[in-house]
Amino acid sequence: MSKTDELCDHCRTKIDSVFNPATGTRTLELIAGQRLVTECCFVADEIHFTGNGQIVFAPQKKESEYCRECFVICRKLVVKGGNKPGGFNPCGPDDPGSDYNNNNAITWFDRLTAAAAGADASKAPDGTSHDKNVWSDVGQGSPHGADGGDGNNGAKGNTGSSGRSAPNFAILALEVEIGIGDNLTIDFDGQNGGKGGKGPAGGDGGDGMGGRDGSSDTTWPGTGCDRQPGNGGNGGDGGFGGEGGDGGAGGRAGTITVVSTAPNIAGSGVFLGGKIHYVNDGGDGGEGGKGGKGGKKGTGGRKGVKTSECDEAQNGSDGEGFLTLEADKGATGPHGGGGSLGFEEVKTGTCADAIPLPTLSVSSVTPNSGTRGASVNVTIAGVGFDPAATADVSGLGVTVSNVVVVNATTITCKFDIGALAPQTPRDVTVRNSLIHQATLTGGFSVVP
Amino acid sequence: MRHRELDSAIESAKSYVLAQAREGFPETCHVMFFPRRAGFRLLRERQASDVFARSVVASVLLDAAELDEDASFQRAIADAARREASYVAAARLADRAGGWSYFPDLPELPPDLDSLSAALILFARAAPENVSLCDEPVRLALENVRSTGAVETWLISPKDDPRLQRTMRRGVTRFWGNETDVDVCARFYHALRVRDSARHSESVRRGAEYVAGRQRADGAWEASWYHGQAYGAGLCLSLLRAVGTREESVRRAVEFLRAGQHVDGGWTVFGETDPQETALALWALGDSAPEPVIEKAIACILDYQTREGHWKGSPWIQMNVGRARGLSGPTLSYSSATVTAAFCLRTLLWARRRLSTRS
After folding, report:
1. How far apart are the C-alpha atoms of B318 and B328, rounded to whole Å?
2. HSE-up of B195 (CA within 13 Å, CB side)?
3. Which of A153, A382, B40, B338 could bridge to A362 as Cys pair (CB 3.0-4.6 Å)?
4. Are residues A276 and A414 in the same domain?
5. What is the CA radius of gyration of chain B?
6. Number of structural domains, chain A?
C-alpha cells in the first residue's frame, strides 16, 4: 500500500473537513511554541512554522497510547527561522526535548524526555558491629573481642528504563516555502533510555569488640592479676560499592515518509535540500549510573583494661575503609534501532486529489510559431513553475530540449521542428509533476 | 569536637548514672576474699564493700549537677545524694569510734580516715543532719595528728573494745601498713574545710603545709591508695587551692599534669590511655587547662564511652599487699564503671560549660 493510500485511510475525514470545496475550512495553522496534538492527523491548508514552533504528537489517552502512525497533511508548508539539528543536541539523556526550544520541529511527546532513570540503590548492609569499648560473652569463647563483620559489597545498581519506540510518521505537503537559513527538524527518533541508578554504597565494616578487661585478684594476698586482659577484636572492612546501573536501551525510531510532488522530493527538491532535517536513527541508550562508594572501615576493638600486675593486651586493628573508592559506572544502554526514511510522490486517484495543487498556468509562448526544419528558442511564460518543471509540445515532429526553469514564471527551451512536422497549432504543456501540469492550447504553431 | 556529640555523650552518661542511682549503685560493690589461711580471723572470708565508693560517687555527682542546667537532673541527684547519705550514715560502725571501715565486717581492718572524710563531705553537702556522726571520729583523727600535720590513716580508738583494738593493730602491722598517706590526708583536710572552715582553719592550714611538703620535685604526689597520678593530685590541689597559700605548689602540680597529656588527648595509667585518668586530670587542671587541651581530652573521653553511655571501670583504688612488709606489690585493684562514669560525666559537664562560655 502506498503511503498516500495509508494516509488517506487514516485521515480521509480530516482532509475532507479541511479541503472539501464546499465545506472545507481551509485553515492556516500558525505554529508558535509547542503545539500538542493528540490526534493522529494534523491537517491544515497551510502550516506555518515561525522559528519557535513545534508540533508534538502526544498520547491520545492518559496511559500514553500513541497513534501508531502520525500524519501532518497540508497543501502548503511554510518554514521561517529555526536551526539545523547540528546547532543543538536533541539527544541529551536528561531532557532532549528542551533543546527544541526556539527551533522548528515535528516530533512526539516522549521524545522530549528520557525514560525513567533507575532508582538509586540503597546502601548494602553493614557488617556486624560491636561496642569497641566493651567485651561481652556472645559466644566467641575467648577473652578477646570478636572481630567486626565486613560490610557487604553493594550489588549492581538498577537499570534505567528502556526508551519507548517512536510512532511512524508521514508528512504530505504539496508546496513548501522555506528560505535560506530556515530549518525544520522532523524527529521521530526513539525515546532515549533512562539513566542507570546509582550503585549502592558498600556496607560499613563493623567495629571490633573490646577485649575482656583484666581483673585484679580478689583473694588476699593474690598476685595482683587474676585474669589477663583480652585483645580487642579487629574492625571489619568496609564493603565495596556496587557498580552503577546500566542505562536503559534507547527506543526504536519510527519511519519517516515524505509525500509530495516529484520536484519536491527529487534529489534537489526542497525535502532533500538540506533545510529539512530528519532524525530517526534510534534513541540513545541511557547513561550508566554512578558507582556506589565503598563502606567505612570498622574500628578495632579496644584492648581490655589491664591491672597493675597483668600483661598488656592489644587493640584490635581497624578494618580497611573504601569511602573514597567509587565503583565502576554502569554501562551505557544500547542504542535503539533506526527507522527508515522514505519519499513518495503523491498518488493521484486518492484522497490527496482533494488537496488543491498550487496554481500552475501557461500564459504565453514566445515566439508562438516556427517553421518546418527550424530550431526555435522559445520563452514560456506563466505561473507556478517548479524548478524541476518540464515542457512538452503536443503532436508529431516537434521535440523540446534545453529546458531551463528561469523562475516560477519563466521557462526557456528549444523547439526542434521536423521538416515533415504537420503544420498545425500545438498545445504547450508545463508539467511540475505527473499530477500537476498546465497547458496552453494552441500555444505554438508549425508554419511552412 | 562537635558540641552535639558532647551533648549526646552527656545525656547518655546521665541516663546511666541515674539508673544506677535508682538501684543504689549496685555496681560499685567491691568483693574480696580474706582467707583464714592467710591469717585473717573472721567468720566469712568473703567481704563486700560499697560505702566508700558510694560516698565518693554521690559527692562527684553533686559536683556534676551543679555544673548542669538541667533542673530535673539536679533534683534527681540531690535526692540520690540524700539517699546515699542515709545509707552511709547507717553504715557507721557501732562498735568502733573511728566511724567507717572500708570492709566493715573485716575485724582486722580498722576504720579509716579516707572513709570518714568521704562520709563527712557527703553529709556536709547533702545531709547536714548526719554531720554529727563524724564528730567523734574527727576528734580521734585530730588527736592523732603528727607534728608534720600528717594524720594516721587508721582510726583506732583507745575506747574501742580491747580485743578489737588488738585485732586491728595486728591487721595494720601484718596487712595494711602504718604509713601516713598524703592522698588520705588531703581528703581529710578538705573535708574539715567543707565541714567548718572557720573552726578548722588552723588544722587545714597545717594540713596544706603537710600536703605541699609531700609533693615530689616533679610536681606530683605519691598516692598510696589510688592508681594513676590524677586522682591524688586532684585531692591535693583541691586542698591547696582552697587554702590559697601554696601557689608555687599548685603551679608545679599543674605543669606536671599538663605534661602528662598524650597525643591522643588522654592521660594514662600503666602506660595506657585511660578515660577516668583523663577526666580526673582535666578536672584537676580546671581553669588552668587551655581550650585545645580540653578539646582533645574530651574527644578522648568520648571515644571510650560505651554505647550504653558509661565507661569501663578504670583502675581506681589500689591496695599494695606488700606495704606492711615494706615491699612494693603485688597490687590489688578495684575499678567500677559507675565511679568512672561519675568522674567522666562531671568533667564533661565542666568542659561543656567552659567551652560554651568561650563561644
Report:
1. 12
2. 26
3. A382
4. no
5. 20
6. 2
Q: Are strands A41-57 and A28-37 parallel, antiparallel or unpaired?
A: parallel
Q: Is the peptide bond before A422 cis (omega within 30 degrees of 0)?
A: no
In this structure, are A370 and A428 located in the same domain? yes
Residue A171's domain comprises: 1-357
DSSP character string of A384-421: ---TT-EEEE-SSSEEEEEEEEEETTEEEEEEEEPTT-
How many C-beta atoms surround the C-beta of residue B148 within 10 A?
A: 14
Give which of A131, A135, A218 to mutate to test B binding, by max B Cβ within 10 Å: A218
A294 and A374: one domain? no
Of B306, B314, B332, nearest to A134 by CB-CB distance is: B306
In the prediction, which pLDDT does B76 show?
Answer: 98
DSSP code string of A261-292: -HHHHSTTSGGGSSSEEEE-S-PPPPPPPPPP
Q: Which of B35, B270, B333 sits opposite A220 (nearest CB)?
A: B35
Same domain, A304 and A365: no
pTM: 0.75
State the nearest Cα–Cα gap between A201 and chain B, in angstroms.
25
Q: Which pLDDT score, from 0 to 100, does residue A396 have? A: 93
Q: Cβ–Cβ of A220/B321 closer than 8 Å?
A: yes
Which residues are paired to B17 by β-bridges? Answer: none
Which residues of chain A does B272 touch, with a Cβ-Cβ cutoff of 8 Å? 303, 305-306, 312
Number of domains in chain B: 1
Asked if the Cβ–Cβ distance from B38 to A312 is below 8 Å, we say: no
Give the residue from B319, B328, B132 showing the smallest Cα distance to B227: B319
Q: What is the span of the domain harbouring residue B332?
A: 3-358
**Domain final residue, candidates A316, A338, A357:** A357
pLDDT at A86: 55
Report pLDDT for A90: 43
User: What pLDDT does B245 receive?
Assistant: 82
Task: Answer yes or no: do A21 and A146 share one domain.
Answer: yes
ipTM given for this complex = 0.87
Residue A92: per-residue pLDDT: 47
The domain that contains A396 carries what CATH number? 2.60.40.10
**Residue among A220, A306, A308 whose CB faces B34 most closely:** A220
Suggest the residue from B333, B335, B339 to mutate for an interface test with chain A (most A CBs closer than 10 A).
Answer: B333
Chain-chain contact of B304 with A133 (C-beta, under 8 angstroms) = yes
For residue B45, give the CATH number of its domain. Answer: 1.50.10.20
CB < 8 Å to A216, chain B: 315, 331-334
Question: According to the model, what pLDDT value does residue A98 have?
Answer: 55
Q: SS3 of A10, please?
A: helix
Instruction: Examine the domain organization and report whether A43 and A129 are in the same domain.
Output: yes
Name the closest residue on chain B to residue A303, using Cα atoms.
B272
Judge whether B270 is closer than 8 Å to chain A, CB to CB. yes
Among A90, A21, A43, CA closest to A353: A21
The per-residue DSSP string of B43-103 comes to: S-SEEEE-HHHHHHHHHHHHHHHHT---HHHHHHHHHHHHHHHHHHHHTS-SS-TT---SS
DSSP state of A227: B
Task: For residues A189 and A324, state if they share a domain.
Answer: yes
Within this chain, do residues A54 and A175 fall inside the same structural domain, yes or no?
A: yes
pLDDT in tens, A17-61: 999 888 988 899 999 998 999 999 999 999 999 998 999 998 876
Q: Which residue has the cell 550489588?
A: A155
Q: Which of residues A357, A382, A410 is at a domain's end?
A: A357
Half-sphere exposure for A42 (CA within 13 Å, toward CB): 28
**Which chain A residues are closer than 8 Å to B274 by Cβ?**
305
Cβ contact A213–B312 (<8 Å): yes
